[in-house]
Structure formats: structure tokens, C-alpha cells
Design goal:
Elements (H helix, E strand, L loop, with lengths): L2 E3 L10 E3 L11 E11 L1 H7 L8 E7 L3 E9 L11 E5 L4 E4 L5 E5 L3 E3 L6 H5 L2 H13 L7 E5 L4 H12 L3 E6 L4 H7 L2 E4 L4 H8 L4 E6 L5 H7 E9 L11 E2 L6 H12 L7 E6 L3 H9 L6 E5 L3
Parallel strand pairs: 4-7, 10-11, 10-13, 11-12, 13-14, 14-15, 16-17
Antiparallel strand pairs: 1-2, 3-5, 3-8, 3-17, 5-6, 6-9
Helix pairs in contact: 3-4, 6-7
Length: about 300
């Protein structure tokens, strides 16, 4: 099968297009997915650069990618949840890094898989699992509810844009930080935008004089602002700054969870959440997709079109 691989840690130039990579085996409780589209997340190139080596076992050569939307090709033993022909999505993270989603076929444990939302195309669907679960799990673990005010740091990014919509679906008022060029985009998603440069805390306080109930951080380096705008008794969490735990915040790492993914699918099919796609690259241009992700100025998700 065709796949993007790398045989050592490094920068984008270690990526190679392999034409005859062996197909993955399909173990008990797994499905084999023919990949229609995958999605780029910063963790993909951070793993490639070696940053997760202390945390996860790596088996070279690596096929990167954890997000996938595709069609079930076949199922493993004792896998009644799915059948060949089912259209599915997955945050296909395993316990080690080797056989990812930037390939024509990927095997995924059923604990990572859900049905594809009927109202998303393949590229949109591929962008939902990791970013959507990151936003959903942080917001729900912080107990966001009806009538609360939520500040979303980096609200126009791949995770932030989904967090805005999910928080709105949970009944919250949302304030989102972004550059001025992204403010109309945030308004379309239902957020009240604020410029992140300069006196961010002051601008948030103008919109929420009593402070905000919840702060979710998807960028890091904003702890001072979070503390300055959080109402008494408020909650906050981050996926980018482990120091939040020192003052009662939640430091979260997204987990594969089929039930949570199904909850996201329901929100999408109800029309409460959609997946903004910034750009789509063919499989052979993953290096270019990584470079765009590394620029740090992406509105929404980056998709990798594998097959149709």
C-alpha cells in the first residue's frame, strides 16, 4: 500500500512516500479502514521531531497520523460493532507509534472508532476526532454548563474552533481570543472575539466584568491572563501548559473514546458543530501540510486526501 513514512527522528525532510508498505494486520477487536482522508495535528510532527520519545514507544519506520475517516475494509475477530462497508471515523491512537493513518489502510481498535457523521464530507470528518475529542473532553471534565461564560484561548485554531461550538452547544456564552483577521470567523461560530495582543485581560473584563466561569487554553503561555479573568470559584484547564495544575487547573491529554466520539457525531448531525477545513493536501505532500501546521497560523483543520 502507499504510505508516508519516516525511518528516524528529524524535520520534514525525513518524510518519504513509500509505494509498497506492508498492509497492517487486523487484530481481535480491531477494524481495517480504507482511508479516504486523514488530518494533521501538531502532535504528528512533534512525534516526528522526537518530542514524545520519553512518553511513547516508537517503532521505525513510522507511518504518522492519528485521525482518519474512511470505510471499513474488514473486521478482526470478535468485532461485532462494525461490518465491511461501514463509513467510520477514528482517533486511531494505539499504545505505541508505528502504523498511523497517512496510508491507504490503517487498523484501529474499536474503542477508537465511531460512525462517520452523515453531513460531513471526508475531509471535514477526518478533522473531527482528535481535535474534537480534545475540546469535548476538556470542556466536559471542567463541567461547562448552561448559562456559564467560557473563555477559549486560541479560539480560531483547529481545537479552539471546535471548542467554541461545543461550549455553545452546552449552553455557554463564549469569548474567544484570536487575531483581528479571525474575528469574523469566530462570530460565525458563535463566539465574542477579543484580540490576544496587548491588554487581553482588560478586554475580557470589559465583556465579563465579574470574570469568566471557565477558561480553556489550547496555546500555552497564557496563565497570567487566565488567573486575571477567572471569577471566584471558576475552573480552568489546558492542553498546552502543565503548570496549570499548580493553581488548581486541569492539565489534560486527549484519550481515544468511542462514546465521546459518538457524542461529537451527534452534535455534528444536529447542526451544532461543524469542522472548518483550512486546506487539503494529497498524500504525497504531507511535508507541505506539516509546514503549514508548523506556521501556527491555521484557521481550522488541515486534511490529507488519500483516496476517494
Amino acid at each position: 500500500m502507499r504510505a508516508i513514512t519516516y525511518a528516524k527522528y528529524g524535520e520534514n525532510d525525513v518524510l518519504q512516500l513509500t509505494q509498497d508498505h506492508p498492509e497492517p494486520k487486523v487484530g481481535p477487536g480491531e477494524v481495517l479502514i480504507r482511508v479516504r482522508s486523514a488530518s494533521v495535528n501538531p502532535v504528528d510532527w512533534k512525534i516526528m521531531q522526537g518530542h514524545l520519545d520519553p512518553l511513547m514507544n516508537i517503532e521505525f519506520p513510522v507511518i504518522p497520523g492519528w485521525d482518519v475517516a474512511g470505510v471499513v475494509e474488514r473486521v478482526g475477530l470478535d468485532t461485532p460493532e462494525f461490518a465491511p462497508g461501514d463509513e467510520v471515523i477514528a482517533y486511531a491512537r494505539k499504545d505505541w507509534v508505528e502504523l498511523g493513518t497517512f496510508a491507504e489502510l490503517v487498523s484501529a481498535p474499536v474503542r477508537t472508532v465511531a460512525r462517520k457523521p452523515a453531513n460531513l464530507d471526508w475531509d471535514q470528518a477526518a478533522g473531527l476526532p482528535l481535535a474534537g475529542l480534545t475540546a469535548y473532553q476538556l470542556l466536559t471534565r471542567l463541567g461547562v454548563g448552561e448559562g456559564e461564560t467560557v473563555l477559549v484561548h486560541a479560539a480560531a485554531g483547529g481545537v479552539g474552533a471546535l471548542a467554541v461550538q461545543i461550549a455553545r452547544a452546552l449552553g455557554a456564552r463564549v469569548i474567544g481570543t484570536a487575531s483581528a483577521s479571525n474575528h469574523d470567523f469566530l462570530r460565525e461560530l458563535g463566539a465574542e472575539p477579543v484580540e490576544y495582543a496587548g491588554d487581553l485581560a482588560g478586554r475580557v473584563r470589559e465583556l465579563a466584568p465579574q470574570g469568566v466561569d471557565v477558561v480553556v487554553d489550547f496555546v500555552g503561555g497564557v496563565g497570567d491572563v487566565t488567573r486575571a479573568v477567572l471569577a471566584e470559584g471558576g475552573r480552568h484547564g489546558s492542553i498546552a501548559d502543565g503548570s496549570v495544575a499548580e493553581d488548581g487547573g486541569l492539565y489534560a491529554w486527549v484519550r481515544p473514546d468511542a462514546a465521546d466520539l459518538e457524542a461529537l457525531v451527534d452534535l455534528v448531525e444536529r447542526g451544532d458543530v461543524t469542522v472548518p477545513v483550512a486546506d487539503v493536501f494529497p498524500l504525497e505532500r504531507v511535508a507541505d501540510a506539516f509546514a503549514l501546521s508548523q506556521s501556527g497560523h491555521v484557521r481550522g483543520k488541515i486534511a490529507i486526501s488519500v483516496s476517494r
